[in-house]
Amino acid sequence: MGKELISVIEQIGREKGIDSGQIISAVESALVSAAKKRYGLAENIQVTINQITGSIEVISLKTIVDRVVNPRSEILLDEAQKVDNEAEVGDEIGSLIEIEDFGRIAAQTAKQIIFQKVREAGWEVIQRDYSARMGNLVNGIILGQDRRNYVVDIGKTEAMLPLSEQIPRETYRRGDRIKAYLYQVKRTPKDVQVILSRAHTNFVAKLFELEVPEVAEKIVEIKGLVREPGDRTKIAVISHDRAVDPVGACVGVKGSRVQAIVRELRGEKIDIITWTSDPRIFIAEALNPTSIEKVGIDEEKKSALVVVSDQQLSLAIGKNGQNVRLAARLTGWKIDIIGLNEYEQEKVQREQIVSDESAVKDETVDTGENEEPAASAVTSNADDTTAETHGSTPPSHRSTEPPDISSNNKD
Questions:
Q1: Does the reported pTM lie above 0.85?
Q2: In whole angstroms, what is the distance from residue 230 CA to residue 145 CA?
Q3: Is 19 helix (H, G, I), strand (E, B) or coil?
Q4: Does domain 134-199 have CATH number 2.40.50.140?
Q5: Which residues contact 355 (CB under 8 A, 6 or more apart)?
Q6: What is the C-alpha R_g of the chain?
Q7: E strand or H helix at 127
Q8: CA–CA separation, 335 vs 305, rounded Å?
Q9: What whole-number distance in Å separates Cα of residue 198 and Cα of residue 152?
Q10: Per-residue three-class SS string for 185-225
């Protein structure tokens, strides 16, 4: 019986990845609970299992006293000295309890507790192992669906790919192999939940680490990455080696590296740009694949006005504003886009307003003191004209009045 018990414990340990000592401790705790259920909670019971032979000793400990108040936990000195003639008052003495005396209910309790302790030990192993792997890629096999969430076998346990972490419109069947980002490990009263993600921005970053050795070796650094899963990703990279082109390294020969990532993302478009500290160049690059005519910035408001040709306007804004929205998130700047014709018209209007204001000032100086009322009337009219011009409604694709970029543009 003893050696069989040790053999079973070692087998469970190998299958679950649990140390045998933890299982033996769980069995000891279970036997203590079973003994107390059989003999009463007041009993002071100690259980030890020999890890080599598997022999089990269940001992009921009692304190030696002159007068017994609680027979379950105390014993007279005379009775104790029959077992150990050197026993003294205040010592503890134990008597063996046969496991067979536990009874059916106590044995069933011990069995349940053993199973529970083994499960808990298994959960601790899973939580420890997968917590250490959080933020990395894992491979798995689809087992099925539960309320639109995919259940994935990742080796030691089953993980969950929630609907919120799936790439829109992608579907899987039982047995399909997938790659995912290990997003979260949560301990609950019932088990340990491992949460996967394919919609997280770090999923794309880890795919680049996997496919591009220069990224894995930190020669090329990902400075920024924004994404709308299933549609488009924009990634800004920089090289710490002058001999290495960061964009070329990520794209690969004939696009082999980036195409492998696109296939994994089920056709999601990827724009790779070079990161730069110059906000004008960075904003222009972030709007890739659009050709930019001019970029003007307001550093205080951290806003930018981008001028593109009328033919490129819809491409710059993107479907439902996606391209400019991702560019704004990547750069951290508020970006307004305007067509070249509209920009030239506004430029002419601003120059005309400045010219009119200059003419008013010159006329006011020439009239002198004798015709002060007439000068006041002209000034009033000029103010009215200026107010009317600045009160005009801006174009629908701009939320604020654009900054004047005539003096700080970049062709």
A1: no
A2: 20
A3: coil
A4: yes
A5: none
A6: 39
A7: helix 104-132
A8: 6
A9: 13
A10: EEECCCCEEEEEECCCHHHHHHHHHHHCHHHHCCCEEEEEE
Type of residue found at 338: I
The first and second tokens of residue 257, run together, are 């590296």
Query: In the CATH scheme, what is the code of domain 205-275?
Result: 3.30.300.20
- For 199-347, strand residue ranges (E) read 220-228, 232-239, 269-274, 292-298, 303-308, 334-339
Question: By three-state DSSP, how is residue 118 classified?
Answer: helix
CA distance 193 to 154: 12
H and E: helices and strands count for the chain: 13, 15
Cα angle vertex 289, ends 284, 290, to 5°?
A: 60
Residue 267's SS3 state is coil
- Tell me the CA distances in angstroms from 156 to 7, 14, 18, 129, one per residue in order: 22, 12, 12, 9
Beta 149-153 vs 177-187: how paired, if at all?
unpaired
Instruction: For residue 196, count CB atoms less than 10 angstroms from its CB and return exposed for 0-12, middle for 13-18, buried for 19 or more.
Output: buried
CATH fold of 2-128 reads: N Utilization Substance Protein A; Chain:P; domain 4 (3.30.1480)
Tens of pLDDT, residue by residue, the chain (411 residues): 457 777 777 777 777 677 778 778 877 887 787 777 776 655 677 788 887 877 777 787 888 888 887 777 778 877 777 777 777 888 887 777 776 655 565 566 666 767 777 777 778 888 888 999 999 999 999 999 988 999 999 988 899 999 999 999 999 999 999 999 999 999 887 888 999 999 999 999 999 999 999 999 999 999 999 999 999 999 999 999 999 999 999 999 999 999 999 999 999 999 999 999 999 999 999 998 888 989 999 999 999 999 999 999 999 999 999 999 999 999 999 999 999 888 888 888 888 887 777 777 666 655 544 443 333 332 233 333 333 323 333 333 443 344 444 334 443
Q: Are 306 and 337 in contact (CB under 8 A)?
A: yes
Q: Do domains 134-199 and 205-275 have the same CATH topology?
A: no
Domain boundaries, the chain: 2-128, 134-199, 205-275, 279-411
Element housing 70 (H / E): none
At 109, list the tokens. 């309790």
Assigned CATH for 279-411: 3.30.300.20
